[in-house]
Amino acid sequence: xxxxxxxxxxxxxxxxxxxxxxxxxxxxxxxxxxxxxxxxxxxxxxxxxxxxxxxxxxxxxxxxxxxxxxxxxxxxxxxxxxxxxxxxxxxxxxxxxxxxxxxxxxxxxxxxxxxxxxxxxxxxx
Amino acid sequence: xxxxxxxxxxxxxxxxxxxxxxxxxxxxxxxxxxxxxxxxxxxxxxxxxxxxxxxxxxxxxxxxxxxxxxxxxxxxxxxxxxxxxxxxxxxxxxxxxxxxxxxxxxxxxxxxxxxxxxxxxxxxx
DNA sequence: TTGACAATTGAACGGTTGTTCAACTATAAT
DNA sequence: ATTATAGTTGAACAACCGTTCAATTGTCAA
Lengths: 125, 125
Prior knowledge:
The structure is a homodimer.
Chain A: H1 15-24, H2 28-41, H3 44-53, E1 58-59, H4 60-67, H5 71-83, E2 87-92, E3 95-100, H6 103-123
Chain A binds a DNA duplex through residues 10-11, 13, 43, 45, 59-61, 69-80, 91, 93-96.
């Protein structure tokens, strides 16, 4: 099995598997979107915000108090979440109320929540 | 509504909401585990590896060829995934075959895949 | 119109992280 | 034993990212 056509420091060890994988591969654009979705939820501050907004709509100031952070830090992260379309906001006078963008977000949150809780229980055995 | 007991640059605007949220808050340890889970999947290389291993078990070299990366870079990321218990490995001679740790991982992957695909379709309307 | 305050923004700082590179281990074949 | 190759590892570098800080916007009340 000689050198392959790819620019890489490898020989192809299992050419059949590589070909099959190449054929079945999900398109890159989709995988990058998935990575971005995960990235949005991968920060402790942002996941806490999503957890909070899963219960009720809330303003920047209240979130800052709850998380014991500055309004600025919270606002920056809310901007991230907004750009990823995970939260939406509604202005009422001076106050901006944030909530989850849709049920989908809560669904994704709940699934990973269940997963982690199961792992925690399994870990005790 | 005066200054509150928290160290923060905020007044509590909606004290009732903050109290309720505080009461219902998921424990921090759980949220941090969730963030870690998301972090493990938030990198484009790692999500591609998970996608590949969702189809078939595969060795480091094959993955490197598929992703057009060095073995070293792939190995580093596989180590990350192993430490997060998202993949497992099996040695056969010189070759190390990697696969997803369990069905759970594939389930989580599939859910976010569906989510992203729906978003893509909605985006076209 | 002035003051107070919720919220946003951009720059800067420091910590994190992904890839590269070189060195290394382990296994198989000659 | 020697060589070749699969894989791992640690250090180093650059890019990325979260928080802080200071300045600014927008809205309400006096």
